[in-house]
Specification:
- By secondary structure, the chain is mainly α.
- The protein folds into two domains: 51 residues; 47 residues.
- It has four helices and no strands.
Length: 99
Amino acid sequence: MKTIAEIRALREQLVAEAARQRSTIALQFSSLQGPANAAARGLQVFGWLRQHPLLVGATAAVLVAVQPRRALRLAGRGVVLWRSLRMLRGWLREKGVAS
């Protein structure tokens, strides 16, 4: 059976090792901070657009009236983006990452 002193020494070693591991992980994942912030900002923009459908529709109508070719080109890109996001969402659900 271990003495209290041995248990305390082991605990100190484990706490120090955990601190080293945390700092290593933080260093390794610090490069992901920028892309994660950009993704979060993008999700905020999409959320805002979903909350203001009338404004989005009115903007689209004005764009179609003023620049129909550009509106058609943007609509095509929007469809591609929408389908890509749906495919990504399905893949993430399949992997169990998203609900």
